[in-house]
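Section 3.1: Structural characterization of target chains.
Under the original work plan, the team committed to producing a structural model for every single-chain target entering the pipeline before any wet-lab resources were allocated. The record below documents one such target. The sequence was received from the expression subgroup and is listed exactly as submitted; it comprises 226 residues.
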Amino acid sequence: MEPLLLFFKNFSVKPIAILDETIPIQEYVPIDLSIDNNALLSFDITNPNACQQYIDDVLNEGQGSVAYGGYLERRNLYNGRAGFSGLVDGQRNIHLGMDFWSKAGTAVRVPISGKVHSFRNNHSAGDYGPTIILVHEVEGIRFHTLYGHLSLASLEPLYVGRKFYQGDTLGTLGTTEINVNYAPHLHFQIIRNLGEYKGDYPGVCTTKDKEYYAKNCPNPNLLLKV
């Protein structure tokens, strides 16, 4: 196993709760938003209210507070959103991070110590909204973590180089209006090579580019173990 993935495997034996510390990991419920989920046929998940209704149904059934999942899911969630369809190389509908759906205002915790690489409000419709990227250097390994769909207040105290330690509160989940028309959630993504990006990085890709992005953005659950 390569060094980065081996590091994630050995980093923690127990699951790492990435949201409010008062929410026990037992209240994290898996959710399937893929095109293969027939239960979504009766919901227009491109509508944030309908999407929220489905999330609530899943949480109620599972008696949970956080719905999670989504790595490499092929989704209809992005249908009709500018920048996702009608492209020369195909539709961008493969999700590259892990989502944690919960109430707006829920605290987001840092799963592994790092410092601020960059941040910005990606406010175009269908984008991340307020976004923070941390850089991590451990055991000679460098990688980044991206946190999207945050509140505007999450960006106010930041500066490049600010340190955050494991368990610190990084910010809070934004409302639908702030996270540019999605039900409230955290998009969490691990990125090996960030390139020249600052405060942003693709979180959805085409089938054509899946192999590249799957390698550059390993499964976040290797670290979190939810």
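The radius of gyration is 16 Å.
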